[in-house]
Amino acid sequence: MRAESLKGHLDALILAVVGAGPCHGYAIIEELKQRSGGSLDLPEGTVYPALHRLEEGGLLRSSWSKDSGRRRRIYELTRRGQRELGVRRSEWRDFSRAVESVLA
Amino acid sequence: MRAESLKGHLDALILAVVGAGPCHGYAIIEELKQRSGGSLDLPEGTVYPALHRLEEGGLLRSSWSKDSGRRRRIYELTRRGQRELGVRRSEWRDFSRAVESVLA
DNA sequence: CTTGACACCCAGCAAGACTAGGTATAGCCT
DNA sequence: AGGCTATACCTAGTCTTGCTGGGTGTCAAG
User: Fold this and answer.
1) CA distance A61 to B26
2) What does the pLDDT look like over B9-39, one tens digit per residue?
């Protein structure tokens, strides 16, 4: 997967995973890998800063949990995050259709 | 259309348009707009540098034409460009499928 | 003769994702 | 006990990429 393919779509992917249920960063990475059949194998250096950006922007909210001695930061969608997920989904459809119509 | 959506896919779009027949820069912009139903309305400052990059990279070849006093730089695919177009198309399919499987 | 469409160009900027490091806990193997 | 792997987090700096905002010049229409 070309590195830049992702640009501008990462937020939508993360919002979608967290939208399916509260989740911590490492698990989000695993989930993306699994759901995509291995083709979305994102480095931590990509995902963690994105999570911070999304929280900063008010789309995610986080809290620390200490399950079995391991600290985890659990993320969930804010109301704005839910709305934004909808917007991003439909933006993806538009973009995807547009590219398809050119590549076809 | 979010500005960053495009990132990493512009080359594929341009290669696809030029792949359909030799074309000059301005016409490529028009063609992208038309084929996408208006949603891919790229600024010249995006497309011209991309064309130069692609020629620099050996995927496009260009020559000047002077039709009716107006100079135009006509681009066409090199053999490597044709191969690359195929690669990019299949990369887009993979990426698209992956995103779809996460957003679904 | 000015406005708009056509047609090209580029320097500098901003944003996004990755590289390459770092910290620390838990469990397994030898 | 020591080492290795997986889990789990973090960040400064880098690179690529597309856009902004400027510029040049031709041609046709009003």
Assistant:
1) 45
2) 999 999 999 999 999 999 999 999 999 999 9
Does any CB of chain B come closer than 8 Å to the CB of residue A18? no
Q: How many angstroms separate the CA atoms of B96 and A31, rounded?
A: 17
The 10 Å CB-count burial string (b at 16+, else e) for A15-39 is bbbbbeebbbbebbbebbeebbeee
**Residue B93 CA to chain centroid, in angstroms?**
16
State the smallest CA–CA distance between residue B89 and chain A in angstroms. 7
Q: Is A5 within 8 Å of B95 when comparing Cβ atoms?
A: yes
- Secondary structure letter of residue A37 according to DSSP: T
Tens of pLDDT, residue by residue over A42-98, are: 999 999 999 999 999 999 999 999 876 789 999 999 999 999 999 999 999 999 999
Cβ within 7 Å of nucleic strand C, residues: A 3-4, 6-11, 42-46, 49-50, 53, 68-70; B 4, 7, 24-27, 44-45, 48-49, 51-52, 70-74
Total-model pTM: 0.92
